[in-house]
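Whether sequence alone determines local backbone shape is best considered at the level of individual chains. The sequence in question and its structure tokens are set out directly beneath this paragraph.

===
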Amino acid sequence: MNLRSLLRLSLVLFLLFPFLFLFSQFQISQMPNAEELRWAFKNSFTQSFFSALFSLIFGLWAALGLVSLRHGSWRKAAEILCLIPNFLPPLFSLLAILNAVDFFPMGLAGIIFVHTAINFGLVAVLLARTLESRIGHVIELAYVEGASRHMIWFQVLIPMLRKELLYLGLFVFIICFGSFSVPLIVGGGMGTTVEVLIYEKIRLSAEWGEAIVLAFLQSLFIFAVSFIVGKGAVPPASREASLKAVAMPSGVVFLALCGLFYFYGYGQGVLNGLMKFERFAGMGPDILKAFGGSVFLGMTAGIFSYVALMLIAYCWPKWWFEKFLAGYVAPSTSLACFSFLILTPNEGFYPYIKIPIALVLLSLNGLFRMGWDSSLHALEQQIRVAYTMGASHAMIFKEILFPQISEKAGVLAGIAAVWTCGDFAVSRILAHKEVSIAMMTDSLMSGYRLDQATAVSVLIILAGAVCYCACKGGSYVLRRKFEA
């Protein structure tokens, strides 16, 4: 077995580790209670369905507002505003919403509200680009030919956008179905999802066999849905067109109000927390230690993500490997974390290594689909030409792949580092004490000190910015060294 084959096999085993390890450690002696499974699955399906539905409705409205801005600084600012909730860890959206809404509805309604707030902006940006590049020329032609707005909407826009809306809806559905942190915080007793039920099965009753079955069923369901989503890629057209006939400036107003709501809620919490500064007395050393822990965890996850992405590139292309990565579904967050929990001791320095590794395992599939796969596919022609001319795999990686993809890997690693800095759900399972600012924020939220939690969370942004810049800058330096 050569090096590339060994690395491919190692990556596959790493991604499948939670299932392989737990199946070898625990026997499935009892199946989950059918009524309990039905109830949790119903909750997961309900919140995912309505989160996707409302994300599509509000996302389409916002998208029609974005296309009215066309290009320029206003358009870029609006797109950044849309993507902020999806780019930042869910903790920030939770803090902003809980601060802004005095009587927040815990349970399914709360989960749907938070998921919609996080995801509709991403839907808006994707739909706006689809409208401009793929459907715009047909709308423009219909408008020039004198078709009414009603006719354009119901005979052109909706029919041509139906498939895209379906794929985007399924994409959001998958994200929400496997969500752990949001249901854990705002689900309450009546909003228990399959993911939270897995957590409770292991944490509260140590029913590992039932938890493994639940995780397997959840992964199987998500895989089936994601397989449908994977069929939805359609190459965009190259020409953009006028969309005056469907543009809705009210969508811009809606975006502005949502942004105001988000920043008002978060800003209000920060200011109220700082006004109670005396309550932070004595917390200085703990805050500094937690901040250092956040930076360390973020940088470690960023480095591991960078290495994992580069290993994928080094092993590229291989038909079965590509198919595996394209169809791979990350395991249950709870199951993956508990598998690492029992693998080694959970004291001392171990959590600082296990948390980044677990987060890389859970996020690598997302990073791969955030453009890494398309970057590698774009270079396949160069790889084939170089291989035909006698270049070795190591030379192809060093001379062709690495210089062209290092900075992209740095950006994706930086995103993983930011997510790690804001993680509290994985850390809550794998750490025996507060090792990061996110965990400290979670503890303050659990103690109903929301203002203090929001004020402390500002340090997560600082830690995330440090890690992101370090990952991006480090990848640039490495590229320059390889080119030298």
